Amino acid sequence: MRFTDKSVLVTGATRGIGAACARAFLAEGARVAINGRTDTSVAVAMAEYEGNANAVAAPGDVSTLEGCNAAVAAALAAFGGLDILINNAGVFFRGTVEETDETAWDAVMNANVKSVQFCTRAALPALRAAKGNIVNIASESGINGYPETTAYCASKGAVLSLTRAMAMEFAPDIRVNALCPGVVETDMARAGFAAGGDEEEGMRLQRESYPLKRIGTVEQTAAATLFLASADADFINGVGLPMEGGATVGNWRSLS
Ligand SMILES: NC(=O)c1ccc[n+]([C@@H]2O[C@H](COP(=O)([O-])OP(=O)(O)OC[C@H]3O[C@@H](n4cnc5c(N)ncnc54)[C@H](O)[C@@H]3O)[C@@H](O)[C@H]2O)c1
Question: Is-above-0.90 flag for pTM?
Answer without folding.
Answer: yes
